[in-house]
Design the sequence.
């Protein structure tokens, strides 16, 4: 199929439709509004339902109902709205209901700003809501990757019966790039014998619930969830590397920041500095092993984020003291490649001094 | 021997966990009887609340989804939009529906969401130990209004049925009571009518059921029925507040 030029937010909407999603429940918030705008027009064309909920909380609970009824369903929002959804996300994980949640991240805390940010990493990967649960979290770095990861997210959500979050940002959501919707292998169909869609008088009643008053039963339930998270941790780690083979200095960055870092790595290479880049694509599960192995040969790490330093904690855990892990971040604007290059030069001088 | 009374097919044989004199059991049974009579056991999805009725899913032999506190109308909306030919209902208490879930119930009604809500109003939080509810009467003592609800600091109880009846999307809104057998029969008729209105695709329906909580009211069950009749019904009048055929504020 020919490529089409689309905004990131709209491309996510089209990818969802191509993946068989026919239900979207959401609430308006900048900078993700093109997603509901697009689906409000497109879903009815496909016989689907777009519903603007009265709140983010209602929207995520509509997702809970629709997912429980067996549908492929999505919601989208941006940081403050995602905070409101955390209650529902905890319940979705507890009830093992599949869905896709899009966070087009903006700056925080509080109302923060409407520019791109990456300061929701902790919230997305470490919890956010209450209880021991995990989301699969994908961080696309291009509009094409938004399409690919959104389509795959629906399959993984159904396969593992777990919510999947697409963690974008305001730039990826707003920018236009050519995209191809032919994603081989995506759009699988799963049986959902557990769905609460009426017994039809021919099976036992299905129950979606998250309360276990008996402590033994709650612990059993949590063990089932944790075993599932371990399976996901083994099977679904995704990352990309760039020029890391001989790299002395390895940058770690995801999403839009990884593109900035790639330019900085190129500039470093042009100036004789052996720099490389690891780009986590799945933020949970985190590519710990890729980074750990890299730390055996590289001399210094630099994590770059649009945050005050969140993913850097996971990079430090992965490197585990084998090399110094540095951080460079901005919290209200995207670091420029010049700024990142400046950090690389500084680290290169330290490496030489060692 | 002819069997004249039996457990509704839509109720499981699990014994209710409710306190002596609690009227949740009656309300559960009425819902189950209505489901049986309409022949919709295999075609119905119930949404259970947080509160005393949190274990409703163990008592009903139908597909159920247990919602977060107050979110049942949103969950039911998600189910109904995916499965418009199923009968979808929520069962909620007063804290769930009229405090933490006020936005969800108001907007489900405003959208004319084609679901049914059974709203059990016993004027107190039961499960958490007898705190003041949005429907606690002025002067009524609770654990968090030990001197009785003071309208100066705690405001006034919400008349949910009357409030929702102002919304154009609401098709059927009624208030009933279960404090004596005659009223139990009328309550069942209203619940059945609400389900039938959903099945006819007419929009949102809600039946508010005045109920007792002898444990947290600190009354014997019989005294609780008397208290309901003498105190709740004057503030929460019974009747149909909205109905597709008119009949507003008609006696149920």
Sequence:
């Amino acid at each position: 199929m020919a490529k089409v030029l689309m905004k990131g937010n709209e491309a996510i909407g089209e990818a969802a439709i191509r993946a068989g999603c026919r239900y979207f429940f959401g609430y308006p918030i900048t900078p993700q509004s093109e997603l509901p705008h697009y689906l409000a027009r497109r879903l009815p064309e496909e016989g689907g339902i777009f519903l603007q909920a009265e709140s983010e909380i209602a929207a995520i609970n509509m997702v809970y109902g629709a997912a429980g009824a067996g549908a492929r369903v999505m919601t989208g929002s941006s940081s403050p709205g995602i905070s409101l959804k955390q209650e529902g996300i905890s319940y979705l994980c507890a009830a093992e209901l599949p869905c896709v949640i899009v966070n087009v991240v903006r700056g925080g805390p509080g109302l923060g700003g409407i520019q791109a940010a990456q300061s929701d990493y902790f919230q997305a990967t470490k919890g956010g809501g209450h209880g021991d649960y995990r989301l699969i979290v994908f961080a696309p770095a291009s509009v094409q990757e938004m399409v690919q990861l959104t389509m795959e997210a629906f399959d993984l959500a159904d396969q593992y019966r777990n919510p999947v979050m697409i963690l974008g940002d305001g730039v990826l959501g707003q920018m236009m790039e050519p995209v191809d919707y032919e994603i081989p292998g995506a759009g699988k169909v799963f049986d959902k014998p557990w769905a609460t869609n009426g017994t039809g008088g021919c099976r036992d009643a299905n129950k979606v619930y998250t309360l276990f008053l008996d402590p033994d039963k709650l612990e059993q339930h949590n063990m089932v969830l944790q075993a599932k998270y371990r399976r996901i941790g083994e099977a679904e780690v995704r990352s990309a590397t760039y020029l890391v083979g001989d790299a002395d200095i390895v940058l770690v960055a995801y999403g839009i920041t990884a593109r900035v870092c790639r330019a900085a790595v190129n500039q470093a290479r042009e100036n004789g500095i052996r720099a490389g880049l690891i780009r986590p694509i799945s933020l949970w599960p985190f590519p710990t092993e890729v980074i750990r192995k890299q730390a055996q040969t590289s001399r210094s790490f630099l994590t770059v984020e649009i945050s005050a330093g969140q993913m850097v904690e996971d990079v430090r855990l992965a490197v585990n003291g084998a090399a110094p892990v540095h951080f460079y971040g901005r919290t209200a604007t995207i670091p420029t490649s010049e700024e990142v290059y400046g950090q690389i030069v500084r680290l290169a001088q330290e490496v030489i001094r060692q | 021997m002819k069997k004249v009374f039996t457990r509704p097919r839509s109720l499981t044989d699990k014994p209710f966990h409710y306190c002596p004199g609690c009227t949740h059991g009656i309300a559960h049974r009425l819902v189950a009887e209505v489901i049986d009579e309409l022949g919709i056991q295999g075609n119905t999805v119930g949404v259970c609340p947080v509160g005393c009725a949190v274990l409703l899913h163990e008592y009903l032999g139908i597909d159920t989804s247990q919602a977060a506190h107050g979110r049942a109308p949103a969950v039911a909306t998600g189910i109904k939009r995916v499965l418009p030919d199923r009968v979808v209902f929520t069962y909620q208490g007063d804290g769930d529906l009229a405090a933490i879930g006020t936005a969800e119930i108001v907007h489900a009604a405003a959208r004319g969401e084609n679901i049914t809500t059974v709203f059990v109003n016993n004027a107190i939080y039961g499960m958490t130990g007898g705190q003041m509810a949005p429907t606690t009467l002025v002067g009524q003592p609770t654990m968090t209004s030990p001197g009785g609800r003071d309208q100066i600091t705690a405001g006034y109880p919400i008349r949910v049925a009357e409030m929702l009846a102002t919304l154009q999307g609401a098709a059927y809104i009624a208030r009933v009571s279960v404090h004596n057998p005659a009223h139990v029969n009328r309550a069942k008729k209203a619940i059945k009518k609400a389900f039938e209105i959903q099945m006819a695709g007419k929009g949102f329906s809600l039946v508010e059921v005045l109920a007792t909580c002898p444990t947290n009211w600190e009354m014997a069950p019989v005294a609780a029925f008397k208290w309901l009749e003498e105190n709740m019904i004057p503030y929460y009048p019974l009747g149909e507040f909205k109905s597709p055929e008119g009949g507003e504020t008609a006696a149920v």
About this structure: The domain at 24-183+194-210+223-242 of chain B is CATH 3.40.50.970 (Rossmann fold). Chain B has a mean pLDDT of 96. The interface with chain A takes residues 41-45, 47-48, 54-55, 57, 60-68, 71, 74-83, 86, 103-104, 106-107 of chain B (CB under 8 Å). The longest strand of chain B covers residues 170-177.
